[in-house]
User: What shape does this take?
Amino acid sequence: MSYDVAAVRAAFPALEEGAAHFDGPGGSQTAAPVADAVARTLRAAVANRGTVTAAEQRAEDAVLGAREAMADLAGAAAGGVVFGRSMTSLTFEMSRALAKTWSPGDEVVVTHLDHDANIRPWVIAAGNAGATVRWAPFDKATAELPVNAVTELIGPRTRLVAVTAASNLFGTVPDVRAIADAAHAAGALVYVDGVHYTAHVGVDMAALGADFFACSSYKFCGPHLGVVAAAPALLEALHPDKLLPATDAVPERFELGTLPYELLAGVTAAVDFLAGLDPTATGSRRERLVASYQALEEHEAGLLDRLLTGLAAIDGVTLHGRAARRTPTVLFDVDGWRGYDVHQALAKCGVNAPAGSFYALEASRWFGLGDTGAVRAGIAPYTNESDVDRRIEAVSALADSRG
Ligand SMILES: Cc1ncc(COP(=O)(O)O)c(C=O)c1O
Assistant: This one.
């Protein structure tokens, strides 16, 4: 296993601007091969999907190639990979399709830990269907989501459990598999928000027990496009609103309008890029992805340790959350400074790290951080030790000056 962060960084033209990017959880920087694939597709002849002209075939290949790529990334079936504008819009659409099968008295379980994109669509859909929403709390000291906090809400009327694979606010990685097992035993479906998770952890939908796995390629060095993967047979059973002339085939049934072929080419390039993060990995793309994610996890774990140790040593820094299993995403405050002011002061030092609740509004409120949240530092594939040290020094200088 090997990870060459200098080589990884060389693939990100954005880093030439000089900032240390800790804003990856909001959206990673884009790898050059991704930008090239998008540009190549836009510069070539492209028509609507088809097989008669080269232009049609190019669109066809972009779609099928991206489905194959995402299937490899998530351990999913290519025929169950749905693309859409964002994870949020796809989840709203899925919630409306699923809610057509719900009746008054049915129940949906959501968690306080989740990003609002995996809460609000379910709350609204449940409201429209007359279903009841049950809210799973998380631990206010550690930001961990105990399995039983979710499973004790699951009952015979539970139709769906929506849970995050990783919190974009605290980095918490819940035991999704244990939650999914309990949901399945009760006959409920499991919708997993993998947006933050996929940026850091190798995905295996089956191992997670996810019936639906949602993610967004701009979080893993790709273009702005949302993805939901599910078993094709499960998608066959759902009937989203669609235009009369639009195909009823799965997964196209869920893809409203014309797909962005150039972005799909970018998604494939992003998956290929991730598969190459461990240059010594061999075998199928799926095998190279598994190895590369292991190398990435090890790289990021070392940097997380360095960042946590450095921040914890600064007098006046409060770290929020300490889940045993977490992504390399750190939420903190500096005494005497408002989060937004920390964001601004760090930006002046070339360190990019915004503050807020990052749409994990329920989580921020539940934890006691209100609507303003705190400062977030996220490690990404291109983060190196010098970035981390710059960040620690900048925060240390701030803490000394006590806003
Ligand atoms: C954990 C998590 N879920 C969902 C989303 C929403 O993703 P999208 O921007 O694709 O709608 C985000 C975006 O920040 C996120 O971090």
Remarks:
- The pocket of pyridoxal-5'-phosphate is lined by residues 86-88, 115, 117, 164, 168, 193, 195-196, 216, 226, 359 (CB under 6 Å).
- The mean pLDDT is 97.
